[in-house]
Amino acid sequence: METNTTFPPFPGNHSRSNSTCSRDNLLKTVVFPVLYSCLFLVGLILNGVAVWVFFRIPSRSHFIIYLKNIVVADVVMTFTFPFKVLSDSNMASTGLRIFVCRVSSVLFYLTMYISILFFGLISIDRCRKTLKPFRGTNSARLARRKFLSGAIWTFLLILCLPNVILTSKAPKTHYFKCSDLKSQAGLYWHEVVNHVCQVIFWSNLVTVMICYTLITRELYKSYSRTKSHSAGGTASRAPSGEKARKPHQAKRKMSANVFLVLAVFFVCFVPFHFARVPYTMSQTRGVLFDCKLKLFFFQLKESTLFLSSLNSVLDPLIYFFLCKSFRSTLFRSLRLPPGTCSWLTGREADSDTGSSPLRDSSACT
Q: What is the pLDDT of residues 197-209, one digit of tens each?
């Protein structure tokens, strides 16, 4: 969770905005507010649809439980965007900027790390479904997953609550950082939270990489078996070879969909955490960095933070492509035929009664 967010002065106060290290620049005050405004509108629509659909789906699988938690996190994150837009664009009052430091920014990072944790759990679940496609679930396992979800929210809320309580100082000037509002205990607790968040990210990054390495290996084995079977069938029945290719093409598309979780994780969360290392060093060891370098790392951090915010609009892709229940409920509510968008999802293979891990790993089960 960041404390180094700096709020620029009001437009009439130029005493510090003309300095070399000023962060009151076009990228921060114009470009990002416009981008976050667009993100808010798109996220509000997509996540509104996701909430509407998921309220109609019973929690009968681990995957659906995890997705519902991510939907809630995305909705909360989306509602923090307007406050960031107002504060970054110099249109917020001092009171609203204090609210951003105390509440809005804390909620933003809270929901980011909740999403990261559930991405790790989803990766484990997809790996389990790929390696052991016939292992079912029961009410006891579902209850444990619900308890785990509640424990994650409770743990992170307890972890972040002191950041709200201990950000209690009044700003001395209109130009202040969030860290200026924290007491000494607040700064210490914030450092603890930063370390915990780093552990959360790096442990989940390792988990995601291990799970998708195992998934890739299993899918490769499945392709090898499928290829050998299709080669034998083509040799004996050449005329039907063209028809036989279609299910295999569908399965290839479905296996590609499985990697959406990996793609969203790496696009949204990895760049920010790599950029955060030099940015933090530029803030804590200022003598090693000149003003231009500090500004560069600040802009790099803000740019990768925007990528993290994209998570709120990219997650609906996961719901649509990986969750058959979500797709079916959406189509049924919109009165669309079940086969809609099958060319994108590769759902021609749904009718396949075989035990392919490709099919099982991409179903919302």
A: 999 999 999 999 9
pLDDT at 128 over 60: yes
Q: How many residues does this entry show for the chain? A: 365
Paired with 7 in beta bridges are: 176
Average pLDDT, the chain: 80
Torsional sign, CA 29, 31, 34, 35: negative
Does residue 85 surpass a pLDDT of 80? yes
Count Cβ neighbours within 10 Å for each residue of 64-83 and write b for 16 or more, e otherwise. Answer: bbbbbbbbbbbbbbbbbbeb
Fill in the DSSP letter of residue 354: S
57-62 — which CB contacts under 8 Å span 24+ positions?
57/325, 57/326, 57/329, 59/142, 59/146, 60/137, 60/142, 61/137, 61/142, 61/364, 61/365, 62/121, 62/125, 62/137, 62/141, 62/142, 62/145
For residue 175, pLDDT over 90 is answered with no
CATH number of the domain at 6-227+249-362, out of 3.40.47.10, 1.10.150.40, 3.90.1150.10, 1.20.1070.10?
1.20.1070.10
Single-letter amino acid code for the residue at 265: F
Return the DSSP state at 347. G
Q: Cα(251)–Cα(223) distance, rounded to whole angstroms?
A: 9
Q: CB neighbours (10 Å) of residue 348?
A: 17
pTM (predicted TM-score): 0.83
Q: Mean pLDDT, to the nearest integer, of 268-277? A: 91
Half-sphere exposure in the Cβ direction for 58 (13 Å, CA): 3
Please report where in the chains the tokens 């700064």 appear, as a residue: 187
* DSSP conformation letters of 21-76: T---SHIIIIIHHHHHHHHHHHHHHHHHHHHHHHTTS---SHHHHHHHHHHHHHHH
From the CB of residue 246, how many other CB atoms can be counted at a distance below 10 Å? 11
Q: Give the three-class secondary structure for 138.
A: coil
Distance CA 222, CA 217 (A): 9
- How far apart CA 151 and CA 108 sit, in angstroms, is 19
The contacts of residue 63 (CB under 8 Å, 6+ apart) are 122, 125, 126, 129, 322, 323, 364, 365
pLDDT digits (tens, 9 = 90+) for 101-113: 999 999 999 999 9
Between CA 296 and CA 306, with CA 301 as vertex, the angle to 5 degrees is 125
